């Protein structure tokens, strides 16, 4: 119980409340090695749908670390920042990002609600953030694997591409909670199903080591939480545009 409390308190560092929305940060402030963002899998459904209709519908499913509390938190969390960056990069394109964020929700609970979310949103792409709560709750890695695999298969059967997002990096809790097994499972499931992995764990580890963010600081650094989410939005947008070849596709549809 003490461990879970300590870890959740640290997670609040990045999921802290905010008082106002912010402008997107310049890309250079969110620099990360391209090797941590690129993947070997194309987002073919996104590419085909975008080419046919010039639209992009994205659903984000996640636990507490995918949101920010406070009256304007939803506008500063990475789902909203992702939408803002994509709209900035592709003006005139119909882009919508819908977030379904539920604190302390396990992967199994997320899968239970997938049918309704997919029916309501009809997304072209689902970004699924998972693993954190499962690690905290001590869910067996094999159970996590099976549940995650079932969920990815369900999303793909509904006609959407999938990006799996793993857990945050926290130097304050890495010695108390080993998330590497769950991160490995997510990478394996992405490869098995031809999905993309957004390696948030490695990207945030890089930002901490590079001095971009001091992720060991006290949990009241709300401004840092905002900036981390902003940079995750930028990195996600970069991955989506590259994997769906949206730059090239947009040029073809506007000629």
Topology overview:
Elements: H1 2-11, H2 44-53, E1 55-62, H3 73-76, H4 78-89, E2 94-101, H5 107-112, H6 114-121, E3 125-129, H7 132-137, H8 141-157, E4 161-165, H9 180-193, E5 196-198, H10 200-210, H11 222-243, H12 246-254
Parallel strand pairs: 1-2, 1-3, 3-4, 4-5
Helix pairs in contact: 4-11, 8-9
Shape: globular
| CATH-defined superfamily | SGNH hydrolase
The percent range for helix content is: 40-55%
Provide the residue-averaged pLDDT: 86
Radius of gyration from the alpha-carbon trace, in angstroms: 17 Å
The ordered string of helix (H) and strand (E) elements is HHEHHEHHEHHEHEHHH
Q: Can you tell me the CATH class?
A: Alpha Beta
Largest sheet geometry: 5 strands, parallel
Strand residue content: 5-15%
At the third CATH level, what is the topology name?
Rossmann fold
Summary?
The protein has 255 residues and is an alpha/beta fold.
Task: Please tell me about this protein's structure.
The chain has 255 residues and is an alpha/beta fold. 51% of the residues lie in helices and 11% in strands. The protein contains 12 helices and 5 strands. Strand 4, helix 9 and strand 5 form a beta-alpha-beta unit. The longest helix has 22 residues, at 222-243.
């Amino acid at each position: 119980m003490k461990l879970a409390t300590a870890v959740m308190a640290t997670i609040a560092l990045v999921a802290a409340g905010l008082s106002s929305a912010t402008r997107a940060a310049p890309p250079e402030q969110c620099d990360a090695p391209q090797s941590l963002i690129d993947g070997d899998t194309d987002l073919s459904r996104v590419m085909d749908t975008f080419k046919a209709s010039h639209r992009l519908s994205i659903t984000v499913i996640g636990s507490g670390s995918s949101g920010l509390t406070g009256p304007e938190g939803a506008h500063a969390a990475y789902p909203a920042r992702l939408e803002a960056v994509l709209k900035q990069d592709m003006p005139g394109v119909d882009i919508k990002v819908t977030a379904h964020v539920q604190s302390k929700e396990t992967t199994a609970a997320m899968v239970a609600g997938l049918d309704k979310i997919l029916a309501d949103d009809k997304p072209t792409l689902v970004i699924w953030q998972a693993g954190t709560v499962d690690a905290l709750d001590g869910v067996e890695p094999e159970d996590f694997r099976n549940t995650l695999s079932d969920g990815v298969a369900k999303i793909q059967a509904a006609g959407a591409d999938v990006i799996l997002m793993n857990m945050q990096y926290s130097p304050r809790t890495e010695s108390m909670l080993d998330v590497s097994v769950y991160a490995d499972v997510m990478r394996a499931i992405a490869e098995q199903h031809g999905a993309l992995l957004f390696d948030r764990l490695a990207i945030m580890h890089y930002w901490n080591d590079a001095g971009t963010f001091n992720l060991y600081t006290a949990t009241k650094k709300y401004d840092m939480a905002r900036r981390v989410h902003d940079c995750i939005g930028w990195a996600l947008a970069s991955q989506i545009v590259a994997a769906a070849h949206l730059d090239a596709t947009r040029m073809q549809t506007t000629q």
